[in-house]
Amino acid sequence: MIADAAGLEDLLDRIADLSVIAFDTEADSLHCYFEKLCLIQISTPTENVLVDPLADVPMQPLLDAVSDKRVIFHGADYDLRMLRRVGTFEPREIFDTMIASRLCGVDQLGLGALVERHFGVQLSKSSQKANWARRPLPPEMIDYAINDTRFLLELAERIEAELHRLGRWEWFAESRDRMVAASREVRERDEDNAWRISGSARLCPRAQSVLRVLWFWRDAEARAWNRPPFHVIGNEDLLRVAECASSGRPFSTPRMANRRRRSFEVAVALALQVPEAEWPKMERKRGKRRTNEQLKRFDELKAVRDRIATDLQIDPAILASRGALEATSVDAASPALMAWQRRLLGLDVQAQAA
After folding, report:
1. In 3D, which of 127, 131, 108, 101 has the Cα closest to residue 30?
2. Is this structure's pTM higher than 0.70?
C-alpha cells in the first residue's frame, strides 16, 4: 500500500514510460454520510499496486502521470467521478471493458463474470460491501482490490480484438465518449423533491407532509453523525411511521439511542402540526401526448431496431433504448441516439433523402 510521498514518487518513476495502465477505485458510501475515495488500484504488465488516497499525500501528481496514457477501466463512469473529487483527471484515452463487452453482445457484464468467461478464474465477492476506509486493510480486502485490476490489461486486449472483428469499434468510441462527457456533469440534489422516496407516492398528502419532515430530520441526523441515512432509520420505517402517525394510528419507533429517539418523537409531533396549506402537492407528471403520426413513427423505429438486433444477436436496448426511440419519434433531430445508432437504424439515409 502506497501511503507516503516517497512511495508515490517511486511509483511515478516506474510507470513514467508506460503507454497503458489499468485503474480502479474503491469508495465508502455505506459507512459514512459524505462519500469518499478510499483506494486506488493500479495494474501494469509487471505489478499490481494499491494507493491510499486517505493518507496525507496529494493525488494530483498521480493523476497527472496517467494523463498521457491509455487507461483501462471496468465501468469507468463512477471511477471518473470519484477521481475528479481529488484532482483533475483527463486521460489521453479510456478503454472501458464493460461498455465494450456490452457492445459485443455479452449478457453478464460484471467483472467477475468476464474474468471467469475469459480466464476461467472465479473472483471472490466477499468484500463488495466492505468498509474501504478501514486501516490497515485485511489480506482478503487487499486481494479483492488487486483482483479488480489484475486481469484488466489482458481482458481489454481480448475484448478490443472482438470489437474490431465485429466491426463495432466506432460504436464503442462514441459510446465511451458520451459516458466520459456524462461523468463530467455535476449531479445536484433536488432539495424540493429529495424526500420523495420510493413508495411515497402512495401516501395521502398529510402522510407525505409527515414523511417530508422526517426525511429532512433523518438527513440532518445522518450528516451530523457522518453515517449513511439508512443507519439512522430505513426508508420502510419512514414510510410506516408517516402513514401511521398521519392517520392517528399507533406505531413503534425503530431502535435508536435515547437522545435520537426523543429527537425523532419531537420531529413526528412537529410534522403533525404542519397546516394543510403547506402539505406537499401531488406530483402529476404529464408529458405532451404524442400524435398518431409520432406513435406510428415509434413503432416503425422499434420494428427496425428489433429486426437488426435479431440479425446481430444483440440486446435491442443496446442498439437504441425505448426512451431514445420515443424522443426520436417526436423530434427527428433529437440527440438521444448516437451517430452510430442513427446510421444503423437508417435515419441518416432517410434525412439525406428528405
Report:
1. 131
2. yes
